[in-house]
Amino acid sequence: MNRDMPIHVVRGFLMGAADIIPGVSGGTVALILGIYERLVSNIRIGAGSLSRLVRGDVKGFWKSFTSIEWAFLGPLVIGIGLAVILMATPITWLLEHHPRPTAGVFFGLIAGSIAIAWQLLGQRDVVRAMVMAATAVAAFFILGLRGGEVGDPSSLLFFGAGALAICAMILPGVSGSFILLMIGMYQPLLEAVHDRSIATLLTFIIGAVVGLAMFSTLLNWLLDNHHDTMLAGLIGLMIGSLRVLWPWPDGTESTVLGAPDTQVGLIAGLAVISFLAVFSLAKLSPGETKMRAGANAR
CA-to-CA distance for 205 and 171, rounded, in angstroms? Predict the structure, then answer.
């Protein structure tokens, strides 16, 4: 067994736990751990292999499929699945019963992630600063929107919701569940799961697969050809997403920004602890992080 497999399972577990939290994504954790670009690259290869299979190119499919780093991707998927099974209930309980302190922890997590990503930015010039500012402002206002629940959504809407949600999940600072909430498709999807509506869920999954195939290819190209500009945009997304995690007045339940009034010391302390914990997490992949930082200084 590859000695890195247990570490990849732990990384996947952390990513899966993050995906449960509104305003946080597994992409954020992947960025902290220095595996974000490797993950996107493998997803792109997987998407390419599926497209070859659809076209009937079995030989091309197999060649592409076997080039995926399964020793890396497989344990990640296992870890994500374990996190969803084991952590969904406790995290939901914390968000419901201790919303402000829990939001404070996540706020510190994202703030630390921003600091880590900033260290990986090779070119810190006016262009990158403008991209960062523009995406931060756009994310701040977009994440302040809450759409009303869609009544009796069509199959096309479920398809589109799947594509949007999966794209959000691989972007640092953007939560797939929050995107569904914004477009009014969160509750309809939960109802489809509860009712075991197989046709509806398959439509959503197909949308997610198509969205992932298209978006991962674009994202990989941007990271390869415009790395620092793309990274600046991702940092901006994370800055804008802090709106969702501001602890006051109601934690992650509201995007309304209130002044700190209660539990200020506790929340600030938890935010600082989680901020510092991010740097400890980054040490799980020190070689990869340094490699990226060195390669990106261009």
Answer: 18
The domain in which residue 279 lies consists of 5-295
If one compares 297 and 217, the residue with the highest pLDDT of the two is 217
Q: What is the reported pTM?
A: 0.75
Cβ atoms of 43 and 216 within 8 Å: the answer is yes
The CA distance from 140 to 243, in Å, is 6
Cβ atoms of 103 and 251 within 8 Å: the answer is: yes
CA triplet 258, 250, 276: central angle to 5 degrees? 85
The DSSP-derived string for 82-146 is: HHHHHHHHHHHHHHHHSHHHHHHHHHHHHHHHHHHHHHH-S--SHHHHHHHHHHHHHHHHHTT--
Strands (E), the chain: none
Q: How far is CA 13 from CA 75, 97, 251, in A?
A: 9, 23, 24
Q: Using alpha carbons only, give the angle 159, 208, 86 rounded to the nearest 5 degrees.
A: 120
Tally of domains in the chain: 1
For 247-285, what is each residue's pLDDT tens digit? Answer: 887 766 666 777 787 888 999 999 999 899 888 777 756
Find where tokens 């969803």 sit.
Answer: 84
